[in-house]
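Support case: user asked for a sample of complex input and structure output to validate their parser. Sending the pair below.
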Amino acid sequence: MTWSEIILATLKDNQVRLVAYVPDNILTPLLKAAAADDDFVTVGAAREDEAVGTVAGAYMAGLRGAAMMQTSGFALIGNALASLVVPYQLPAILIISERGTMGEFNIGQTLVARTMRPTLDALGIMHHTLADLATLRFILDRSIKQAFTTQTPVALILSPLLTGGNPAASAQLISPEGPRA
Amino acid sequence: MSDDRSSAQTLNRAALTRRLVQRLTHDEAVVAGIGNTNFDLIAAGHRPQNFYMLGSMGLACPIALGVALAQPSRGVIALEGDGSILMALGCLTTIANVKPRNLTVIIWDNGIYQITGEQPTATAGATDIVAVARGAGIAHSEWVRDEAHFDALLDRRFEHGGPRLLAAKIDDQPGQGRPLRDPVLIRTAFMKGLGTSRSGVLDA
């Protein structure tokens, strides 16, 4: 199975049936598969904090959900985490595709990516970096079960080591540097 | 329809909230945005299906959308102020496209950030929030002309299917109540009201 098939199957195994997202290139196979699967309700949000709010509301009404986004989108959800998800003890599953590292061409992405783990740490939100196909299902499955059992959020960061990253966002060296001939 | 906004009377949020609550006879969920919006909701009498936000400005509609998707047979109402919805206009486009039949959004519009010092919002100027909502795709978005019209719109809110948005011009009177600042208690009580709490086993 591919990484996206494993994630979808693991969400399904744990009755996580709502996927609220702002799209990202890396997440495409996962989002497409969720949209095509009648077991899932998918909501394309305009902003990532919206997706988090919808997942929060759905949980309280009995529907488990995951919010999916890119690293830069994570930077928009600080207030939703700090004033909704964490204090209300809501088990939001955050699935974040990681840009800004391992060959990123966009300096803005590299900077915003550096704010992600410190923000999660500051808020005391458990996070795991998913980098290996062999351990993906174990980490994801156990983390989802822990989140809903203990009513705490969890962030699962999809490393380029797992997904291959976004080829369109790869840094390319265009010419050797130094004095021109 | 361009005269809708100019023909809307200026009403009072506490009075309208009481009228709303009186008409909720089917355990409808109500998600109330921060500040005066939820102050007046609790002042109208706490209901187990009320959710009070203590932060996350702008997320009343997304939270209510989640509730509406999870429980499609329950009526769900989002209450939000003009400043809050201006912060999250994109969510109107999301709601318009998801088309939850059981969701009603009510915007209290007094044209000011009332709780932070009464600075004007965009709706005090050029912005018509009903026109914004219609443009976002919530076709059944209307200004509330007066209290009787508010009642009538509420009673007819499911007749077209799909989501509905009502906007009321309101005065600058402060909210009358205060919810307990205990997020876990608020969440637990709300879940109990929606029948999703696991705390039942601890009830004496």
